[in-house]
Specification:
mainly alpha, 2 strands, two-stranded antiparallel ribbon, 7 helices, globular, single chain, 5% strand
Length: 169
């Protein structure tokens, strides 16, 4: 079940990335769109979960907005923010965000020397913070007990496999 969940998550992220990236070219905007995508479709079913035969369910009362937002925060927003922080710490410069912060080189190839001056500590801080968020996201997702990970237990949800009904012939 863990592999199916991972594949479903990757398919959902890939879908959002393919649709949003050509429009905005901003990693932070992609994360925001992924969070909105999850929030809006979690009550129905995301494309990734539908393709892998999974569904998020709540208690008998259903998935209320609080449960959906809690789950989306942990499963999408935190790892997404971690990825954005890592990219920024490695030298990826988002045009709008970095220009606002005063960096003049909007596109720097990862590994290329950047004369950051006093902002060198900021890059290290962003990198460490981003990796911490990613590691936290991985650890909590691997805490699988039956059909529930840590974020499922906290949000009061579970991921179940959909039963495939075969048509009589």
């Amino acid at each position: 079940m863990l592999v199916r969940r991972l594949i479903a998550r990757l398919l959902d992220w890939l879908l959002v990335l393919v649709v949003v990236w050509p429009l905005v070219h901003e990693p932070a905007a992609v994360v925001l769109c992924a969070a909105v995508y999850d929030t809006l479709l979690l009550r129905l079913n995301t494309v990734g979960k539908a393709l892998t035969g999974l569904r998020v369910v709540g208690p008998a009362s259903g998935l209320n907005l609080r449960r959906v937002l809690a789950r989306t925060l942990v499963t999408t927003a935190l790892p997404g923010a971690g990825a954005v922080l890592v990219l920024t710490g490695l030298g990826w410069r988002e045009p709008a965000l970095m220009t606002t912060l005063g960096w003049q080189q909007p596109w720097v190839v990862v590994g290329e020397h950047v004369n950051a001056g006093s902002a060198g500590w900021l890059s290290s801080l962003l990198l460490v913070g981003g990796f911490a968020l990613l590691v936290l996201s991985i650890v909590e997702a691997l805490d699988l007990r039956g059909t529930r990970t840590w974020h499922d237990r906290k949000a009061g949800t579970a991921v179940v496999r959909l039963k495939v009904t075969s048509s009589p012939r």
